[in-house]
What we know:
The chain is mostly helical. The protein is built from five helices and no strands. α1 runs antiparallel to α2 (36-63), α3 (72-81) packs antiparallel against α4 and α4 crosses α5.
Amino acid sequence: MKTLPQTCEQCFEEFSVALEDLRIYVQRAKKIGLNESQSRELIINFEVAHELALKVMTKYFQKQGKGPFSGSRDLTVEAFHADLIDDGKAWLDIVIDRIQYNPIYSIDTQEKFIHNIQNKYFRLMERFEDTMSKKLDE
Length: 138
């Protein structure tokens, strides 16, 4: 049985749920801190939210007849030009941080990554959610 492709609105709903999950981890981290396991869970929740944000952008552009894009960097740049995101450099920093955090590399970037998620990237995602909510209501 074939399944229908998801709409931009359905992807946005998934993103909003993931962002709410991330919000819980960020609030917990700020209140009581995180142990090693919770730190990994925060990062995983962030990565899920980011992937879903990229999926929302992709579906939004598909709806407009744009794309495909060669990767998350090109998609991020296009989203900035289309005013879906308000800080293109910070969103590109997300892509770079996710690459650097990859456990394959020996560089220890977890603390910096968690700091950026809590103090920078989470707010970017919230603003993206607000912007997309307005765009989808148009």
